[in-house]
Amino acid sequence: NSRGTASLLKDSISFTEFSAAGLFEGHDLLRRGFTSVKNELLPSHPLELTEKNFQLNQDKTNFATLRNIQGIHAPLKLQMEFRAVKQVQRLPFLHSSNMALDILRGNDECIGFEDILNDPSQSEVMGEPHMMMEHKLGLL
After folding, report:
1. What interhelical angle do 54-70 and 73-87 show, nearest 10?
2. Euclidean distance between CA atoms 82 and 105, whole angstroms
3. What is the spatial distance between Cα 106 and Cα 115, in angstroms, rounded to a whole number?
4. Are 115 and 121 in contact (CB under 8 A)?
């Protein structure tokens, strides 16, 4: 029974090991950029992790306060709105300002560090649009 044998082989042997790239796949510079040892190191300062998770911690605190004041429905509604707004994005090669998310969080009236030094027009992350869309759709 060739069908039974194929299903046994499919379950026991991973096909990625026998693919053209396989285990010896090189680093894809076009999609992942240059490798850096600095990215693999632990945070250099104890406050670095706190700063990276600042928005998440602030959201948790705001949801807890909102739950204590208005009940469970208020943070649930806000979390559903956050989730809906995060799903709407531009194409992968275009920078998105996430203005709707900033409005929901109340950050639309604040000027922060990232507003001044994170200018998308000077970004070096721009890639080829066709290749980035094919990667997102799983065609590559």
Report:
1. 140
2. 9
3. 15
4. no
Helices (H), the chain: 2-12, 29-32, 37-40, 46-52, 54-70, 73-87, 99-105, 113-117, 129-137
Please say whether the dihedral angle defined by the alpha carbons of residues 63, 67, 70 and 74, taken in this order, is positive or negative: positive
Secondary structure of 24-37 in the HEC alphabet? HCCCCHHHHCCCCH
pTM for this entry: 0.54
Question: Which among 140, 133, 33, 137 has a CA at the least distance from the CA of 92?
Answer: 133
Tracing tokens 């200018």 back to the chain, one arrives at 119
Q: Give the CA dihedral 112, 118, 121, 123, nearest 10 degrees.
A: -170
* pLDDT tens profile 76-133: 999 999 999 988 877 777 777 788 888 988 888 888 777 777 666 666 666 788 888 8
